[in-house]
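Lab meeting prep.
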Amino acid sequence: MTNSLLRIGGVEGDLKLIGGFSEGSFGVLLGKGRVFESMEAYKKWVRENKDYVHSLESLANGFTWLVPERFSESEIGPEAVTTLLGIISAINEHIINTSPTSMHVGSTEGYSFPYALCISALKDLETLVEVVAQQYFGDEKKWNFIAIMEATKVLVRLALFQNNGYKMLLHGGGTPNEEMHVEGSTPQHNMGSFMKPGGQLGPGYLRNNHGQDPWNLEGRALSALTRFGENARMVSEPVWLRRVQHQQAIMEPPTPVVEKLTLATLLSEKGLQGAFYIFGEALFITRPLIYVLFIRKYGIRSWIPWFLSLAVDVTGMGILSRITSSRGGTKQRQFHLSVSEKNELKRRKLLWALYLMRDPFFSKYTRQKLESTEKVLEPVPIVGFLTGKLVELLIGAQTRYTYMSGS
């Protein structure tokens, strides 16, 4: 009886000690729990109302272009608001892309570093950095800060390019490239990823776990031995465990195992075509940094950065177009692009139109055309006003490198 009392008293003392020790940290844990619940509730709301969220983001971003001080000398405030809205939009897009219903087979976006979110945030932050650097350090020294931002984006994009199995970057890495390559793929390998032989579907799916054909004699014998071993194992398992495993097998069908393509595998399979593909994608990734570094050296009014940037773009696009065309090599070494990657190549070609808005081409040719068009349409009611406002916004946006960089 005494031992029982001592034991109960000891437990009571321990509980008091634990209660006294955790009393100070209980509020912190409770606060963290509430924050976590709020975050989960916000994620759920965004995923359930993604169309509404996209509409709000588009409306808010449209209003920022109509701010009176949008392109004045002291536009840090409006640009900070625009940057904040852009980062919030990137976070919402990340929440939508990482929802359980939108995760693709082999996707690692939900479990690895959020590259797409990081790249989108850097792109939104870069404009604010440019405006602040220009106001406090001047037009010449601002290129040092822009070069740092571009170098950071290059490093993140190269890491994403390698981590994603050397798949083509969509929208500069801001959109995950998780579409499987089917057309022209071999049974085991794709351009950006490949399945293990045991994980592929199709005709091989009819084979048993030992890779034997169940229709010949040897296959039937091995299948019988396999079933015998499985039945012997199931006898020793509890009935409730077998029921749970059966339900899991019905609800969760086996998914193919996807492996990321390594550089060595890519070069061994595609040979020279693979090396050209890596080089062409590397040119696209590093082109903005090359452009900024030459602007920093020769100035924005020099033709050298303009022509060099255009040459890099044309060379990279020519390489990618060559190796993905029907004449790019043998069937075994061709690159078969997905639909999203074909659209990405079209988008990159459309970005060449930005060269019309970059100095010195803009100052010498484009601006004169815009101003002459504005004068012609100025007498027309409504149309003249809208044209004048559009020209004003284009001229103002052209003063910012980040709006016309295409990076």
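Slide two material, second protein:
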Amino acid sequence: MKTHFQLNMVTMTIVLFLVTCTSWSSVYSQEHQLQQQRNLVKMTLVPNAKAQGAVCLDGSLPAYHLDRGFGAGAQNWLLQFEGGGWCNDVKSCLERATTRRGSTLYMNKLEVFSGILSNNASLNPDFYNWNRVKIRYCDGASFAGDSMFYNQTTKLYFRGQRIWHAIILDLLPKGLNLANKALLSGCSAGGLATFFHCDNFTRTLPKTATVKCLSDAGFFLDVRDVTLNHTARVFYENLINLQGIGKYLDKNCTSSRYYPHQCFFPQYSLAYIATPYFILNSVYDVYQFHHHLVPPSADLHGYWNHCKIRPTSCTPNQIRILQGFRSQMLRDLTFFYGFSKRGGLYLNSCFAHCQSESQDTWFAPDSPRVNNKTIAEAVGDWYFGRNVTKVVDCPYPCDNTCHNLLS
């Protein structure tokens, strides 16, 4: 016969077991909800890519992530080029080939879709139910080249053009060939890729489809650095030569310029793009600020270090130089701003880089705003023709809605 003490112990054990189960169930439920909220999307390798010579720097298969559309958006498509800089010599490309920037072997097999890629109507009101595709970046040249490097010990594949075509060929029978509406987008190096492939994308789709393109932080300027050297131009010239990009630059652009390689820069090629285009950029883009305007080679004594970390630490002279960078971007977009009837523009004064993929900058209660309009609202108004969307922010430091990158 069990004692009162033994019965209490059994009861306590059962209670603890039930509490533990409830606790683990709660944790699992929270994790499951978080996973759903984060919208994790699995990677798809392109199986026929190798036969087309469409491989990453290391020879691995290219990849994308597809989150299927639903409801009214089931036949609409949004393709987003991933960003991630460039490699413009053999050494940097060899290093890149052993990372997620040059090989799908090192990439996360699940990607979080947020911002413009979100499937949540309250977070992405205009594109949430479209087929949304993230194209992984592994060629190191904004999907623009087609060549290779090899010697007795090393092989590097510069096959961005082929990767782009292989992914499109893989997506067409999955419904892209029946698209009603489509948007080709990208961030940073991926934003630059949209300039190269915008019209080609349009030609791929049904003539009845509404096709437009969006570049986020991809309007890289042909700008001199603070020591008056052409750091950006030299960097991209080496990239063009290494990866065989020259023959793929817009022929109308290259034939019109004394220096054809300049057509790698959007300010020269934009005028020749026929597809409606939207340019989203910060006029103080932090990547260009840190690498093109004030690269380490132009600031050997670290005079700009504090200014790069925190804009409020910039001296009056440094602010003057940054305002000069802003002025150049505005000058280079003057024609587009004034004469493009189908183009859209959103230039804010945030120290930022890539604002469409992050939920907090794309569409959130405290998102950056210009004329009280979020980036998501501006892009949506432009795409669907609800409103003319060409907005330019006032100069720093007037905008108190900015999410500045401090690094």
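Talking points for slide two:
The longest helix spans residues 4-38.
Confidence is low (pLDDT under 50) at residues 1-7, 9-36.
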